[in-house]
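We emphasize that the prediction below concerns an isolated chain of 384 residues; any contacts that depend on oligomerization or on bound cofactors are therefore not represented. The input was used exactly as deposited, without trimming of termini.
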Amino acid sequence: MAANQWEQMDGKTLLDTLEQQCVAQGISDLHCSPEKTYVRFEVRLHGVLELLAHISPAVYADFLRHVKFAAKLKMNITNIPQDGQLVFGVTEQSPVQATAGGRERAAASRTVNIRVATIPSRFGEAITLRFLDPKRGIVALKELGFPDAMSGRLTDMMKVANGLFLITGPTGSGKTTTLYALLKTLIGTHRHIITLEDPIEYEIGGIVQSQMDASHDYTFASGLRSILRHDPNVILVGEIRDLETAQTAIDASLTGHLVLSTLHTNSAIEAIPRLLSMGVSPYTFAPALRGVMAQRLVRTLRKDLQAEGATVDPADSASYDGRTVIAELLQATPEIQNLILGNEPATVIEQQARKQGYVSMREMGDALVRQRITVQSEVDRVTR
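Result of the prediction step, given as a token string:
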């Protein structure tokens, strides 16, 4: 849609149109950044930021009013950050199905949540809308792009009665989506599942989801201590941020609970020295650990460009039509656990892991390049 078409809309129509367009195209974030004479609207598509349009301050002001009203933010406050959320409905036509009366399409509807965050800037309030579409956020494990062997190992890890399993990676690498996919494999297996999240991004039936509230001292650490009194079999801790949360999660995994969580490290192996540097006891950490997976998301080429001989422009966003995961999985075998007990460096742990078949994210990405699923610049971008 041309920029002048955005200018002809009032604030509510602009919001409604952007909601539907962003969901239809798989856009994860909309960033609205005021400049001196215009407002820059940018979208994050397949993990890459792209300019959508330059909007006049007058149109943006009306748009901002409607967003803040819908998200229940204070309209008269512009000098401090605010956070809120709004929801809207999406209706899609399902594939054509044969019926007794002929062939017809059935309409399917779902609710999409938008997290809204404002922040004061030099030329006015900047605002970010994050689209949480359950169609893209709640996905079966087999649909995420993991190799069959890795997917099988992940499924097997979820069958253990207790232990600690970690997923690492930066923001936007798909950690939450993978965690939800793993949880879905456990629903209906006679296991009581409780999550601690900040915030709850998607609603999943069959489990108990609890949202952190730091203003009332409800943190990951305090929440983890509380939910242990609810007899859970499986616990998801949104993120390990400090020693107290880390050690409590480890202790819980040693007392009959399967604990899943995330950590911010560049690789799977780096998670081990990171937790040890926090101060966790290697004598409890080593026997508790079941595995660590690091992951990233790379853009995938359109099907017509995956053919041999097709000319690809890696810099053109139109060359891509989705994303897939590249990952590395470290399984905590007895040999790896002994190295943790001995406080061995990451290089020694990697040597042992490679003897057990460990493959790095970059190596998995290089394999996708050879298969023409993605391009080398994409692998370099996320693993550099």
